[in-house]
Amino acid sequence: MKGKQHTLILTLIFLITYLPTMSQTFTMGKKCKALLDEANGLLDAESYTEALAKLDEFSGSCKTKDAKEIAATSKAEAYNGLQQYDQAIREAEVALKITKDKSLLAHFQKGIALNELGDSVGSKSELQKVIELTEMNQNTSERANNYALMARIYSRQLNDRDSADIYLDKAIELSPENTAYIIQKGDMNLYYNEYEEAYANYDEALRKGHDPLDISISRTKVSLKKLENKYGTNKANELRDKMTSDEKEVLCSDLSKALNLGWEDMSMDMFSALICN
Questions:
Q1: CB 69 within 8 A of CB 103
Q2: Phi-psi label, residue 235: left if phi above 0, alpha if psi -120 to 50, beta otherwise
Q3: Average model confidence (pLDDT) for the chain?
Q4: Whole-number percent of the chain with pLDDT over 90
Q5: Nearest alpha carbon to residue 216 among 268, 168, 152
Q6: How far is CA 98 from CA 69, 195, 250, 268, 274, in A?
Q7: For residue 20, what are the contacts with CB-CB under 8 A and spacing of at least 6?
Q8: What is the pLDDT of residues 41-82, one digit of tens each?
Q9: Cα torsion at 114, 118, 119, 125 (round to 10°)?
Q10: What per-residue confidence (pLDDT) applies to 20?
Q11: Residue 83, by phi and psi: left (phi above 0), alpha (psi -120 to 50) or beta?
């Protein structure tokens, strides 16, 4: 998203810097969370068409109000990424209908789409709605959640690392007991190929009581991305021949823990059999 969006981004940075954001906390079961995590991974990778397919699967399986809202706003993000702005607006409006005009993400995505279509008045109207929503929210934990939400948007969709760091640090400061924000910090460091920082974030979350399975999976993903970028391949047989013994020890330790704790991933089972046994 370039060119015309620049003004919108600058406006958002100015407005949201001084305002708390409207709460959007989503709760869902294990299967739905796994599907959403896959969709988010595809959005992170800018694989928008594949993300839409995964979000359709998510929508078909997850029927709560929260799930419907996050499916619609995530689809809006994907359509914005594909520069299909009319579709992005339609999905944003689905979320706004579900939430009675209170979805922060929907207003945000709709504002981006309208700006790209040249409707600066409409995009400013969406930003004004964001302001109105944020001014009503005085709940500290909800405000922390929304700072984390804005960090995700700035990192993934606007590629603004500095703003993302500011918002996520605010979330952690407001709610230091919420290990999900520390995990998000690790995920963001991983996104920017800062591997040691990501490891440290995940280990900190583990010390503070986060689910060991999530930590082992996250650490495994760090090792895999680090090795893939270092050796230029993600093929197990090639990595087996190229990685050092120390790299293998770190990867296999985390992978084995994740599988033993219940990670159900056939490709990782096969990877482990080839690399670690």
A1: yes
A2: beta
A3: 86
A4: 62
A5: 268
A6: 7, 39, 45, 38, 47
A7: 134, 137, 138, 143, 146, 147
A8: 899 889 999 999 999 999 999 989 999 999 999 999 999 999
A9: 60
A10: 34
A11: left
Q: What are phi and psi of 264, to 5 degrees?
A: -100, 95
Tell me the pLDDT band of 128, cut-offs 50, 70 and 90.
Answer: confident
Token duo for residue 30: 């294990």
CA distance 88 to 84: 6
Whether 10 has a pLDDT exceeding 80, the answer reads: no
Rounded distance, CA 73 to CA 80, Å? 10
In this model, does residue 269 exceed pLDDT 60? Answer: yes
pLDDT (0 to 100) of residue 167:
85
- Tokens 């990501």, residue located: 198
Q: What is the pTM of this model?
A: 0.67
- For the chain, the maximum distance between any two Cα atoms, rounded to a whole number of angstroms, is 61
The residues, any chain, with a CB within 8 Å of residue 216's CB and separated by 6 or more, are 254, 255, 257, 258, 261, 263
Q: Which of 87, 131, 148, 132 is nearest to 112 (CA)?
A: 87
Q: Please give the backbone phi and psi of residue 225, each rounded to the nearest 5 degrees, phi first.
A: -70, -40
Check if the beta carbon of residue 258 is closer than 8 Å to that of residue 213: yes
